[in-house]
């Protein structure tokens, strides 16, 4: 407890104690009310500080700690549709971009909302993509199992975000790559990865 809080709490206790002594020749309802008011305000402020700290702690916890079962499934489907055949490093790079967006002020706050944000990941609006784990298993059960294992290990290790927020296949060149706010940072497999300024 800070010195100021100790003084406030001590003052309230002193006023309550003084009000209870019999040597006062007159009743002291106002002092009693004042003491109760000070104590109540102190309690409210302490609770407010606690609530603020809890919110801060929640926001600073790793993204993996806030991941729902639906987010896990979406992470698997995104890696399956975007990076199967890219090898472990390519899959982890896509996972890293996804989680970097979750942590970024420029994107939504959950894996599911990030992945299904309009026109962000091409498979979400293309026919023939695996939309469920069952359909992914029908397309390539072995690749799905490998990706599930990689995703679960990635989550267990803290789901660390990448330094890149954007990527595209090396056989296309989207218009956004010409923006001065975009900087290419690496190439992994058939994907080129970029950082986005101020995000």
UniProtKB/TrEMBL annotation:
Coiled coil: none annotated. GO terms for molecular function: hydrolase activity. Residues 46-67 have a biased composition (Polar residues). Residues 85-194 form the Cell wall hydrolase SleB domain. Keywords: Hydrolase. Pfam families: Hydrolase_2 (PF07486). The keyword Oxidoreductase does not apply. The keyword Nucleotide-binding does not apply. This is Cell wall hydrolase.
């Amino acid at each position: 407890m800070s010195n100021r809080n100790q003084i406030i709490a001590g003052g309230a206790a002193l006023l309550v104690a003084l009000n209870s002594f019999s040597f006062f020749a007159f009743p002291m309802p106002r002092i009693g009310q004042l003491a109760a008011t000070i104590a109540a305000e102190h309690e409210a402020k302490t609770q407010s500080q606690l609530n603020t700290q809890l919110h801060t702690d929640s926001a600073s916890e790793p993204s993996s700690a806030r991941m729902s079962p639906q987010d896990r499934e979406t992470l698997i489907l995104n890696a399956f549709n975007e990076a199967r055949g890219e090898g472990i490093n390519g899959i982890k790079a896509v996972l890293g971009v996804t989680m970097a967006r979750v942590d970024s002020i420029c994107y939504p706050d959950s894996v599911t909302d990030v992945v299904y944000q309009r026109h962000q990941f091409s498979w979400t609006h293309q026919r023939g993509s695996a939309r469920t784990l069952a359909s992914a298993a029908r397309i390539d059960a072995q690749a799905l199992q490998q990706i599930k294992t990689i995703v679960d290990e990635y989550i267990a290790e803290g789901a660390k975000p990448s330094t890149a927020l954007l990527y595209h296949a090396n056989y296309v060149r989207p218009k956004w790559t010409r923006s001065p706010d975009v900087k290419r940072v690496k190439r992994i497999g058939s994907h080129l990865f970029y950082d986005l300024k101020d995000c």
